Amino acid sequence: MRRTHVGTTLLALLALLTLLALATACDDTSSNRPRDDAAIDGGPDAADVIGDADADAELPDPEERLKLAGDLAITKISLFQSVEIPIWRDGDALAPSAIVIVPDRTLRVVVWAAPQNGYSARPLTLMVSVIPAAGDPVDLQATVTFPAASDPANPATAVFLELPASLVPANLGLSVRILDEAAAQTPETQPHPARAGTLTAPLAVAVEPAQEPVRLILIPIRYQDGGQDFLPDTSPAQLALYETLLEATYPGGFELVLHAELAWDDPFTWTGNFDFGDLNGALVDLKASEGEAPESYYYALVAPADTFSDYCGGSCTTGQSYEVSNPGSADYRVGGGMGFSGENSAWTLVHELGHMFGRSHTGCDVSRDDDDYPYSGGMLGSWGLDPRSGAWIDPADCADFMGYCDPTWVSDYTWNGLYDRIVELAQLYPPAAPSPVRLLHVNLADGTLRVGALLTAPRAPGDRTVRVLVSDAKGPREIDAPAVFQSGGTAFTLALPAGIDARSTQLPDFPHLTRR
Questions:
Q1: Residue 238 sits in a domain of what CATH number?
Q2: pTM of model > 0.85
Q3: For the chain, how far is it from start to end, CA to CA, in angstroms?
């Protein structure tokens, strides 16, 4: 997928995305092909190196932890989410990594080991003990066979074990050991090359605080041309593809909201491309008029022909967005791109949203606008991991997604930059303190309604709503009040703003209720 870049505005840069039906700079395949995960798999599947990884229901016999393999020495330990985070090398813990680890996501622990004299390849046990800040350690273990030789620059020559997301809520410690049931016991206090970190002196792992999900408003464009209407794919499957790819390449969760359709009939540019410039200006106006949260993002999905090949027979613009370098420029967090079925449109979204996060081009078949990008040619610089498939991402074959080459992934540099923007917005727009609410209890079985308690600091509201006619300083009006229903559906509780007189409310959908 090829992309081009256009000029700047006073408050934000416009990033122009161009796709050419030509071979890419870092892959020998057509840019119009569907992305093939096998092309970015730099190592064996998990089944080739790991099996039976379980969190033990009970702590194992302490003596079993002491049976350390005598013919292997751990040489390197790295953690992976979507990027690599090295934490231990050649007998020593590394300085705390600047690479972000986000909470509540699976964390892959990758272990390299060097055979010692007399090593015989055989099934051994890789044990990882997770030591939380509070509570008992949790042991996970896997049966593995270490290769006769390993390359510390290639995780495909190592073994690994996955920590489930539930074990990665906050800062934690790790003890990693290679166990051999036939080995003699080595005291926990005695150093051993097959162990890194102990239960009392674990390897420290810094996990970032949890953040609110990124709110992304997807706007289907009904493109009208020559008496025909063209709509993007907004099926559940396509929306799920967007969400899974975004959460695989961004260090944060996403809340995707499907907006109502927006009709558009501007003609193509003289070059035969969809004109995103005027559309993005309209999106700025739309966001302002709707009063959407300032930290939210607007993204138009456009499919201006029956198929992508009908639209793009050669070089074409597939997306464009504002490059919002200032996190306070809330009005300009808008952009648009292709909305055809499949993963190519999802990668367009990943790239364009990167611009809205303030990211510039990193090079690789495009000028390097980000002078701080640390890796030559816009390539990744270190190994990555696709959490969707478990495939390794080889940095020699993949570029950062803020360039124009295929295949792409996220570099650790871009990963950190994206997280910085999430944190900046959280600091600029902290969640509002909850407003007091008055509860209203409804029992449909006996047809009664009763005013309940005043909650001064309510928790999360209900996930359903009920129409309520109210009268307050604003006059008579109708509101949708959050409601939580009891099992069976014959009773529920509403939460009304505290300033409303709950005694005078009416429920149009339940007109026969009496008060008590």
A1: 3.40.390.10
A2: no
A3: 66
